[in-house]
């Protein structure tokens, strides 16, 4: 059994600049699978190309919750920091991209609800589009990798209303009570590589049902050390932390996490 990273952005230019090094360090750290998540059609194309040339990388195709309403957000005069110039693609184009890619996807992600960047006037539209994407994933029998920011309770309602069971919560407000509700609903939660210094995530790793825990980095974001670029190899540090918190051997932790991964994704990591 190998370690894994369920949520990476290897197509980010900071990581792509050292692709071979990033993948080699992951493999050396015992990582057998990295799920690289797409944010929009352009990024999904890069994820597909990367997965095609690297056996370590599995493709998740998605539409970032802000990108899902980005044309409307910009048209309404709100600003959003992004590195691409020009008109973002509209939802119909993004949906068509996902519809075309979904059969070849390891998972759909990332998708979700973001109430931090998206103004309240667009929450209903964002939710309707999230629901549409959840239905596409369910119709194709693909697991979902979900990002939520300040919208966790609503996202859980939508997912349960739609009957989504194979779901991993990637970016979420790490409150133990909420995590326990999500786990009780049958979903999985991924713990980031900064858990050793983020008290809330450390607590979640300690308290959540162990069969519902997965590992992620969200690299290049959320590095375990300030200023350093995050990368998939860092999941090994979280696995070591789990071994300490669980009072388990490293082998037992890898086996537990690997069987959790297999239960969600129906493939060994
Ligand atoms: Zn992400």
Describe this protein's structure:
It is a single chain. This protein is 43% helix and 16% strand. The protein has 269 residues and is an alpha/beta fold. The chain has one domain: Metal-dependent hydrolases (TIM Barrel, Alpha-Beta Barrel). The chain has an eight-stranded parallel beta sheet with strand order 1-2-3-4-5-6-7-8, sandwiched between helices. Helix 10 packs across helix 11 (250-265). The radius of gyration is 17 Å and the shape is globular. The mean pLDDT is 95. Bound molecules: zinc ion. The site of zinc ion has 6 residues, from loops.
Short description:
By secondary structure, the protein is an alpha/beta fold. Helix content is 43%, strand content 16%. The protein has a single domain, classed as TIM Barrel.
Total tally of structural domains: 1
The overall strand count is: 8
Radius of gyration: 17 Å
The CATH class is identified as Alpha Beta
Structural class, from secondary structure content?
alpha/beta
Helix content: 40-55%
The CATH homology group name:
Metal-dependent hydrolases
Q: Number of DSSP helices?
A: 11
Can you tell me the CATH topology? TIM Barrel
Ligand inventory reads: zinc ion
Percentage of residues in DSSP E strands: 15-25%
Which spans of ≥5 residues are poorly predicted at pLDDT below 50? none
Order of helices and strands: EHHEHEHHEHEHEHEHEHH
Largest sheet: 8 strands, parallel
């Amino acid at each position: 059994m190998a370690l894994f990273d369920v949520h990476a952005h290897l197509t980010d230019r900071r990581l792509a600049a050292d692709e071979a090094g990033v993948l080699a360090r992951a493999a050396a750290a015992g990582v057998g699978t990295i799920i690289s998540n797409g944010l929009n059609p352009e990024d999904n194309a890069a994820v597909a190309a990367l997965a095609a040339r690297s056996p370590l990388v599995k493709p998740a195709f998605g539409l970032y919750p802000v990108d899902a309403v980005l044309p409307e957000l910009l048209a309404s005069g709100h600003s959003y920091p992004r590195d691409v110039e020009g008109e973002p693609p509209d939802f119909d184009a993004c949906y068509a991209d996902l519809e075309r890619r979904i059969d070849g996807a390891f998972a759909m992600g990332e998708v979700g609800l973001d109430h931090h960047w998206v103004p309240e006037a667009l929450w209903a539209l964002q939710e309707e589009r999230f629901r549409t994407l959840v239905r596409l994933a369910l119709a194709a029998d693909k697991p979902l990798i979900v990002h939520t920011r300040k919208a966790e309770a609503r996202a859980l309602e939508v997912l349960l209303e739609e009957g989504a069971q194979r779901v991993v919560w990637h970016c979420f407000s790490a409150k133990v009570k909420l995590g326990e509700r999500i786990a009780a609903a049958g979903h999985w939660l991924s713990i980031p590589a900064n858990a050793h210094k983020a008290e809330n995530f450390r607590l979640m790793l300690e308290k959540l049902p162990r069969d519902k825990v997965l590992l992620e980095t969200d690299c290049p974001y959320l590095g375990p050390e300030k200023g350093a670029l995050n990368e998939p190899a860092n999941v090994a540090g979280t696995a070591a932390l789990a071994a300490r918190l669980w009072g388990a051997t490293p082998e037992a932790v890898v086996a537990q996490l690997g069987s959790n991964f297999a239960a969600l994704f129906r493939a060994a990591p």
